[in-house]
């Protein structure tokens, strides 16, 4: 019998896409969710996976992303002092004057114009996790992972291992002998979804402060395969359906001079021209997700299927105002031959 893994990427509010696709698959193929041997997820995909493994109705998981975005992304406010901003503004104006007429002038002027907002976002997280935590306490059961009937794994990144003194990528699962098996679903969910700069690091009861697993495995497919193999499952038995959070059309069009691309530009918390906010995070998360899908494809061959809804315009991970676009994109995708092929693949493989 096949060992069926359902793997869901991270992507913030775009977690609505895998939730919608799973909802439709479970409607069209009644045995689909019942045949899943392991639910694996990162960040938003971790919330989906923890919910489904806990027996939460898929409609409730969809609702978390579709209707509760404003509560998930509860703004954190702690502005920089007016004196500090004034001092920095004066320094930046002097620098802008020194490059007057040079190609870099517009960049410095832009920074000056957005200085207060930049100070706030460079010094503090964008959002509290209190709203998300309240929602998850209602959604997920107060039962440790090791008491759930379904196998689940989520990724996170431990910032400080008290024994080794090093940070480390880890997974939290209910596989036998997993040190995180006694974790409650809410703690696992807040650990896997603590996206750097967006949410504060989450203090896991066992592992200490953790951040979003997307920093190393935004697509958790390879981690899921490794965990299954470690538990004794044969590679030849593994079948995986991997669902992304949309082909997000983002890019960085370098504006000369390229010497301006220091730390601030790569971590800039505001969009600048065609460059998205915090571009290095998007690059890392999208890059590792694509690389992971490639590796899984090579390992599993025809036993691997990747679903990725194309988006017509970029949707930042915190832009819950774009939920209608996500719903439309999912509905359009379900009208394509890619979707009908995917359903036929599930019918033939997820058994």
Explain what the structure shows:
Strands 1, 2, 5, 6, 7, 8, 9 and 10 form an 8-stranded mixed sheet that branches. The radius of gyration is 21 Å and the shape is globular. The mean pLDDT is 90. The N and C termini lie close together (7 Å). A hairpin with a 3-residue loop joins strand 7 (202-204) and strand 8 (208-212). It has helices spanning 16-28, 44-53, 58-67, 69-72, 82-98, 105-113, 115-123, 130-139, 185-192, 214-217, 221-230, 263-267, 279-300, 323-333, 337-349; strands at residues 3-8, 38-42, 74-75, 127-128, 151-158, 168-173, 202-204, 208-212, 238-243, 304-307. Helix 1 runs antiparallel to helix 3 and helix 5 (82-98) packs antiparallel against helix 6 (105-113). The protein has 15 helices and 10 strands. Helices cover 44% and strands 13% of the residues. The protein has 351 residues and is α/β, with parallel strands linked by helices.
Keywords:
351 residues, alpha/beta, two-stranded antiparallel sheet, 10 strands, 44% helix, globular
């Amino acid at each position: 019998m096949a060992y069926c893994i359902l793997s869901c990427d991270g992507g913030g509010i775009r977690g609505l896409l895998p939730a919608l696709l799973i909802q439709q698959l479970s409607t069209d193929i009644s045995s689909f969710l019942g045949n899943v041997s392991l639910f694996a997820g990162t960040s938003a995909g971790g919330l989906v996976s923890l919910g489904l493994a806990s027996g939460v109705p898929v409609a409730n998981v969809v609702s978390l992303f579709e209707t509760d975005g404003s509560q998930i992304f509860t703004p954190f406010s702690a502005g920089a002092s007016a004196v500090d901003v004034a001092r920095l503004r004066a320094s930046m104006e002097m620098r802008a004057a020194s490059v007057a007429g040079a190609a870099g002038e517009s960049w410095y002027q832009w920074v000056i114009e957005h200085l207060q907002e930049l100070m706030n976002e460079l010094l503090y997280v964008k959002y509290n996790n209190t709203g998300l935590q309240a929602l998850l306490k209602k959604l997920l059961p107060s039962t440790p992972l090791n008491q759930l009937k379904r196998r689940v794994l989520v990724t996170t990144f431990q910032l400080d291992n008290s024994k080794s003194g090093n940070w480390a990528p880890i997974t939290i699962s209910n596989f036998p002998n997993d040190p995180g098996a006694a974790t409650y679903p809410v703690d696992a969910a807040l650990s896997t979804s603590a996206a750097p700069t967006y949410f504060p690091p989450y203090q896991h009861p066992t592992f200490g402060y953790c951040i979003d697993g997307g920093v190393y495995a935004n697509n958790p497919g390879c981690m899921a395969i490794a965990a299954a193999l470690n538990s004794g499952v044969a590679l030849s038995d593994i079948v995986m359906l991997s669902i992304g959070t949309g082909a997000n059309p983002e890019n960085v069009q370098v504006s000369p001079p390229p010497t301006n691309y220091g730390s601030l530009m790569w971590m800039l918390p505001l969009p600048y021209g065609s460059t998205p906010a915090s571009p290095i995070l998007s690059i890392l998360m999208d890059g590792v997700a694509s690389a992971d899908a490639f590796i899984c494809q090579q390992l599993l061959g025809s036993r691997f299927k990747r679903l990725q809804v194309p988006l017509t315009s970029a949707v930042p991970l915190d832009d819950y105002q774009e939920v209608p676009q996500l719903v439309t994109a999912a509905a359009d995708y379900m009208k394509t031959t890619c979707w009908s092929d995917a359903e036929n693949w599930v019918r033939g493989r997820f058994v």
